[in-house]
């Protein structure tokens, strides 16, 4: 007997799996933490891995770059895969693949094996990350609940890198560098078990078709961009390979945009990014990504090489910032975003981030943690929380269910590309400033080296502060008001309410 559409809606509400959305949030947060912290957790373990496997200093960057290249270039494809199939199936596949790649890396007996494992981690991470965020987009529709969910998710996205520093230091110092990879097996096992029991995501009623031409252009363009910035970090901006990769990447992405305007089933519908609300949010995520990766990188170097902190001590130094990120992300998404809107909130977060970076630009060799570093970390945590969670919430507002995965992938893409730009550009600037300082202060060498390194780091902080200033202006110009965000949410909620009725009606007609 056919089920009436109204009965179908009642049965969905009565389904006990529908009441597990907060457990789904925990599962998704675990998966996102695993992906984000892997961008930093291995960094602290690199010296130990290098001694164990015997690879050269010049090869060390590839352990990090291989992950970034695969992850950054395949994100849009991973997002579309999540839209084409059951997001639960894609999510679990990404978790299992990521765990298997991590096990392979932990068991590495050679440099090549470790790089291959990191590449596979990045590839499966590109499937997993959009599926995780896409699950939240399709699970939480009510504004207050959505704010809470994105507050938690934003905390993980912004603070996961710092968690990676802490966990990497503890595992490397007290166990073995291999455990920085093996630990993912624990995260993945918990998330897979939870997803199998509590996650319920039906297959799309109409499966989007794959845009192969757009996929090829997008993946190759993003690969070239990320590779170009990564190569610039070691070879410099004048390298022909750096310039060629960046130019090729821009041309390929321009070709991608041209192709998407004419594709019948585009990989990334341009309406997703041309909407001013979402486009401004993507820009905010990218600018914040530059600064976040920069502060983790250079403040880590400063604390370890200049102040003599241990890896564990360095990670623990970031704990106050993580606490502020968590508090600010949840407060911003739940209480402030509905009242102030993205424009005022994210612009204020950018302003706080810029002030914190400017404060760090005053560091000297003799600076202390409590008076000179801690205040900046506290303010920075508050600022990041006001940027990332509201920006992710806004960037996915109003997207159609069949585009939720690729819209979510674009959030991760902007953060990843922003991080690549920040790491490469700021590293080059810092190294150049350090070399010039040493040339101008040749003696005594030991004292000059610490001062030169600090000079390079503080210049990078000052430029990050300027980027945040640019972010304030972009937020004020591009981001929407509270009323516009409310309109997008209302449209998305209406579409989500209509979807079960349409599905039930379709099922009724097929039965009859």
Overview of the molecule:
The protein is mainly alpha-helical and 512 residues long. The chain has a single domain (18-201, 267-498), classed as MFS general substrate transporter like domains (Growth Hormone, Chain: A, Up-down Bundle). The protein is built from 18 helices and no strands. It has helices at residues 5-14, 21-37, 41-53, 61-84, 87-106, 111-139, 143-174, 179-198, 212-235, 240-262, 270-274, 276-306, 311-317, 319-360, 369-395, 404-440, 445-478, 482-511. Helix 3 (41-53) packs parallel to helix 7. It is globular, with a radius of gyration of 23 Å.
Give the key terms.
512 residues; Growth Hormone, Chain: A; disordered C terminus
Number of self-contained structural domains: 1
Instruction: Tell me the strand percentage band.
Output: under 5%
Write down the overall geometry. Answer: globular
Which stretches of 5+ consecutive residues score pLDDT under 50? 1-17, 500-512
Number of DSSP-assigned strands: 0
Secondary-structure blueprint:
Elements: H1 5-14, H2 21-37, H3 41-53, H4 61-84, H5 87-106, H6 111-139, H7 143-174, H8 179-198, H9 212-235, H10 240-262, H11 270-274, H12 276-306, H13 311-317, H14 319-360, H15 369-395, H16 404-440, H17 445-478, H18 482-511
Helix pairs in contact: 1-18, 2-6, 2-7, 2-8, 3-7, 4-6, 4-9, 4-16, 5-6, 5-8, 6-16, 7-13, 7-14, 7-15, 9-10, 9-16, 12-14, 12-15, 12-16, 12-17, 14-15, 14-17, 14-18, 16-17
Outline:
The protein has about 500 residues and is an all-alpha fold.
């Amino acid at each position: 007997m056919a089920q009436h559409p109204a009965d179908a809606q009642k049965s969905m509400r009565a389904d006990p799996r529908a009441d597990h959305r907060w457990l789904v949030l925990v599962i998704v947060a675990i998966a996102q933490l695993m992906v984000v912290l892997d961008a930093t957790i291995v960094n602290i373990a690199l010296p130990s891995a290098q001694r164990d496997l015997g690879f050269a200093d010049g090869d060390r960057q590839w352990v990090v770059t291989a992950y970034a290249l695969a992850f950054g270039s395949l994100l849009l494809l991973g997002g579309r895969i999540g839209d084409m199939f059951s997001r639960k199936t894609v999510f679990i596949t990404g978790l299992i693949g990521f765990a298997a790649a991590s096990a392979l890396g932990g068991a590495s007996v050679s440099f090549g094996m470790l790089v291959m494992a990191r590449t596979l981690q990045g590839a499966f991470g590109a499937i997993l990350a959009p599926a995780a965020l896409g699950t939240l987009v399709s699970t939480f529709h009510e504004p207050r609940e959505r704010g809470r969910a994105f507050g938690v998710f934003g905390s993980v996205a912004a603070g996961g890198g710092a968690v990676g520093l802490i966990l990497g230091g503890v595992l490397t110092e007290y166990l073995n560098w291999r455990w920085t990879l093996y630990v993912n097996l624990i995260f993945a096992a918990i998330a897979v078990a939870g997803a199998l029991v509590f996650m319920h995501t039906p297959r799309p009623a109409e499966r989007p078709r794959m845009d192969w031409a757009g996929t090829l252009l997008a993946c190759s363009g993003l690969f070239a961009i990320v590779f170009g910035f990564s190569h610039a970090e070691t070879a410099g901006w004048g390298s022909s390979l750096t310039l060629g990769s960046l130019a090729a990447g821009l041309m390929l992405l321009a070709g991608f945009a041209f192709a998407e305007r004419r594709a019948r089933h585009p990989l990334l519908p341009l309406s997703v990014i041309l909407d001013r609300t979402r486009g401004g949010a993507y820009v905010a995520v990218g600018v914040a990504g530059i600064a976040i990766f920069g502060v983790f990188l250079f403040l880590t170097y400063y604390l370890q090489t200049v102040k003599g902190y241990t890896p564990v001590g360095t990670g623990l130094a970031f704990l106050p910032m993580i606490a502020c990120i968590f508090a600010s992300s949840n407060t911003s998404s739940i209480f402030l975003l509905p009242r102030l809107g993205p424009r005022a909130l994210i612009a204020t977060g950018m302003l706080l981030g810029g002030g914190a970076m400017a404060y760090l630009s005053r560091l000297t060799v003799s600076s202390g943690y409590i008076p000179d570093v801690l205040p900046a970390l506290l303010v920075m945590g508050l600022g990041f929380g006001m940027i990332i969670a509201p920006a992710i919430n806004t960037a996915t507002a109003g997207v159609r269910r069949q585009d939720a995965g690729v819209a979510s992938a674009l959030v991760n893409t902007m953060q990843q590309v922003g991080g690549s730009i920040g790491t490469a550009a700021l590293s080059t600037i810092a190294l150049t400033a350090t070399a010039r300082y040493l040339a101008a202060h040749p003696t005594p060498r030991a004292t000059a080296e610490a001062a030169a390194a600090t000079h390079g780091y503080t210049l990078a902080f000052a430029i990050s502060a300027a980027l945040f200033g640019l972010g304030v202006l972009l937020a004020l110009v591009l981001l929407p008001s509270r009323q516009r965000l409310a309109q997008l949410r209302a449209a998305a909620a209406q579409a989500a309410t209509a979807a079960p009725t349409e599905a039930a009606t379709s099922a009724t007609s097929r039965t009859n």
